[in-house]
Amino acid sequence: MRISVIGCGYLGAVHAAAMADLGHTVVGVDVDEAKVASLSAARAPFFEPGLPEVLASATASGRLRFTTDFSAVEDADVHFVAVGTPQSAEGDAADMRFVDAAFGSLLERVKPGDVIVGKSTVPVGTAARLARLVAERAPEVTLAWNPEFLREGFAVKDTVSPDRLVYGVPGGEAGERAARILDGVYERAVAAGTPVIVTDYATAELVKVAANAFLATKISFINAMAEIAEATGADVTQLADAIGHDARIGRRFLNAGVGFGGGCLPKDIRAFSARARELGRGDAVRFLDEVDQINLRRRARVVELVREQAGGLAGVRVGVLGLAFKPHSDDVRDSPALDIAMRLADEGAIVTATDPQAIENARRRAPKVAYATSPEEAVAGADVVVLITEWPEFVGLDPEVIGRLVTRRSIIDGRNALDPAAWRAAGWEYHGLGR
Ligand code: UGA
């Protein structure tokens, strides 16, 4: 099939490469010249395991190209809109400017029979609004909404082999045709038995935000339990193991720690709340504000623990392990690690942080923090060490070897990822969260 992908950020670049890998002919379009130049040279503009290989093979096959020239979409019949919907500067709602601009440009160039497929995470009601625009400006074009559930770090795998496919389509013949075309796009996954849910626009949009809201709630639930564990001497990790054995609950996404960050969960729950308020149903998801608060409180808790450990923050040397919002990513958007490093620095601590991939992105946002290229360098002379992103190279550090580099053997494990017994045996004062 001939596919265009509008927006080559995280979602779009991965989607374009994965679609070409599946055998489709794909053009990725973005306004950012640097991004297009990088992708055209088969260089991923961000760290994502597996993406460079797929970009290289798809580009070499001639099935994948990237351009800033919007007219390239004229060579495609299926158009994925994968632009960002960040939190708006004025409040919690999603900023829809990029989506609206993409549709504006696209509708000038589509031809009868084309299918436009929305992938961006949008407030429920957006697809219906855009469908009216499509009906006005390009009446023989159909709009479908096909949310994306990929996780950073596993983005290529999640795109090629998703655990479900959701198509929001209009009723009638046009909708059936759009669903058939999407089955063709995802032929391999469909043939492998991936569940396909064909539904209306509103349900498709809601599936996406509901899934992220559920995941965020699960994480904040266990972090709320961590707060109670801290007040009672209970161990939240054992608690999670024990309740996780109940198949109805499940152990995944029950890791207590500094909580969730990234470009999706935090802004998606805020946008969902904002949209529910617009719909007059703010009460229904008011708990998401609490989910957000619990999450943010964990960051403050780490800052307090450092203060307690060092007897103050001014002039205290803190070695921070991790900057990305999670391992296997260079993404520092709403990263708990970067937030904590900046708060410590703002309160006068001398912070040296490191991360295997995220230093450059972090440096741009947090110039007050000093950066080191190895964990050894980051903790050298530290009064307190804080582990915030559980990269395997940090989790595997030898407490005895690291202990020789610091001034005081004091560690705060912001992800409950270390073995407390091993660190205590090496003479460290160990603090997890909720244990
Ligand atoms: C999330 C969803 O998991 C994807 O399904 C979704 O497609 C994506 O958002 C999106 O909307 O684009 P992602 O942001 O890549 O994916 O990251 P997650 O793996 O969900 O982790 C989010 C945050 O939660 C990380 O900061 C992670 O450290 C934290 N987390 C995760 C916990 O604190 N505890 C856990 O048990 C699990």
Task: Provide an overview of this structure.
By secondary structure, the chain is an alpha/beta fold. The protein folds into 2 domains: 2-199, NAD(P)-binding Rossmann-like Domain (Rossmann fold); 213-435, Rossmann fold (3-Layer(aba) Sandwich). Helix content is 45%, strand content 13%. The chain is built from 18 helices and 14 strands. The chain has helices at residues 10-21, 33-40, 51-60, 97-107, 126-137, 155-160, 172-185, 187-191, 201-232, 236-244, 265-278, 287-310, 336-346, 359-365, 375-379, 392-395, 399-403, 420-425; strands at residues 2-6, 25-29, 64-67, 78-81, 115-118, 142-145, 165-168, 196-199, 317-321, 350-354, 370-371, 384-387, 410-413, 429-431. The strands form 3 sheets. It has a 6-stranded parallel sheet with strand order 3-2-1-4-5-6, with helices on both faces. A 6-stranded parallel sheet has the order 11-10-9-12-13-14. Helix 1 (10-21) crosses helix 3, helix 9 (201-232) packs across helix 11 and helix 12 packs across helix 13 (336-346). The longest helix is centred in the middle third of the chain and has 32 residues, at 201-232. It is globular and about 70 Å long. The model has no long low-confidence stretch (mean pLDDT 97). The structure holds uridine-5'-diphosphate-glucuronic acid (UGA). The site of uridine-5'-diphosphate-glucuronic acid has 21 residues, from helix 9. Pathway: Nucleotide-sugar biosynthesis; UDP-alpha-D-glucuronate biosynthesis; UDP-alpha-D-glucuronate from UDP-alpha-D-glucose: step 1/1. Belongs to the UDP-glucose/GDP-mannose dehydrogenase family.
